Amino acid sequence: MAPLLMAEGVTKRFGGLLAVNNLDFSLDQGAIVSVIGPNGAGKTTFFNCVAGFYRVDEGRILFDGRPIHALRRDHIAHLGVSRTYQSIRLFANMTAMENLLVGQHHHLSSSWIGAVLGLPSVRAEEEMANQEARRLLRFIGLQGRGDTLASSLPYGDQRRLEVARALATKPRLLLLDEPTAGMNPVERQQMTDFVRRLRDELGITILLIEHAMRVVMGISERITVLHYGEKIAEGTPTEIQSDPRVIEAYLGRGSQAQAVGQAAVAELAPVPPVPSPGPPTA
Known about the structure:
The structure is a single chain. The protein is of the alpha/beta class. The chain has eleven helices and ten strands. The chain folds into two domains: 1-80 and 173-282, 3-Layer(aba) Sandwich (Rossmann fold), CATH 3.40.50.300; 94-170, no CATH class. The protein has a six-stranded mixed sheet with strand order 6-7-8-3-9-10, with helices on both faces. Strands 2-1-4-5 form a four-stranded antiparallel sheet, with helices on one face. Helix 7 (185-202) links the parallel strand 7 (173-177) and strand 8 (205-209). It is globular. It starts with a strand and ends in a 15-residue tail after the last helix.
């Protein structure tokens, strides 16, 4: 079976900066695949090329065998590609229900004239949209919270609501840009389980950018590693953990990488600095 998503020789420049360089990539239907790399590796640029936010300078991108690299992003979304962002982009002053209704606008066909006239077809479509929004609220565990302002929801719920808004577009491929950013370990595990449900229960193919390497290693079937816009490694989590090119990209050359050893490579992310102690207590 042909890959659902395929990139061939994709290159994207910003002036003199080569953000993505001659990238070949493929993603099979029903897979969960992660794209990782140090900051500035070109991960989000590649996402934006797939979703239609950027036009590629060279190469092409195929979705289900159809070239999409020259299409507008709304056309790409209509074909079944949706994405989330590292920073939450919900409509903060709208309710959870309203956010999910907005996400369905690509699939609504009623005109404003029909809405003004109150045509039966318009009312029927509105009811179907409301039913779908309620279904999505149940799926993310927010049933009964549809009238709550998005800004009033806990952080983890806001993250899931943003994913649900992407689901409202009925995607076949979902691009998740750091879905566990800012979460504590418990929230990260909950989000990891939720992402797995998207594939297992809804059949959605997942392409993931994530800096939390425990999440990446725990959920990914395959991992692609970018460094300065180029693909330097690709394989299973076990293969990526032991790849010397990946170790060098994250930890540098020489004694530092050697001293860290295999245990640190399994995490792959830099250790956060230890906070300085507060003032002594009396």
